Write the structure tokens for this entry.
Amino acid sequence: MKVLGVIPARYHSQRLPGKVLLPLRGKPMVQHVYERAQKVFGEDLIVATDDMRVVEAVESFRGHVMMTRTTHTSGTERVSEVAEKTQYDAYVNIQADEPFIEPEQLIMLREMLQRYPLVSLFHRIHVLDELLSPSVVKVIVDKEGKALYFSRSLIPHPRGLPLNSPELVGRIGYFRHVGIYGYHRKTLLEIVSLASCPLEEVEQLEQLRWLYHGYPIWLRETSHRSFAVDTPEDYEAAQKMAEILL
């Protein structure tokens, strides 16, 4: 199976514009993501962007890059444009704002694509603040690893325990969705044409649209905690982490 790694890199982020080009240890963030993903995908890797500043940055470190439309509303839509213009069996959507992504996670997705057409990852939540934060997307899966539901709320609801109880983390298994995906080409082109649904509109989570329309999502647990740079505070934390991890 031929699999292409795609890094959607939109320049105009709402909370932190131009974040994919912010420097970490002398390199733009997107370069760190590219170099880590390249360990898995080699030359089968491309940055998909909507801004010439990103194109120039990627070309400066000799990465592959494709200019895409400015009208996309999600990374999945941007990856689908790449799929329209290329011929691979499957695509892995790699977040451009996760400079510490573990290559092992990408290997897991690529392996899962051998069996399943739509895949992602999750990891166990160990911190109460993270558990209660609406910016952290929680997921529950069935016995086969298929997603039952994603939510910004606490799922499952811990009946009999207060929501601020530290026992929540230890007694009940809660899981955070890691927002990287793998898709077979046919599935990818189908899901971007689906109509939105009320669940997606309420939670603002595109994967609920796929579940609503009957597309199962298979997930596997990873031990690596994801870290996305979404705000100036995240970037400040990333600069400190970079001194150790990059």
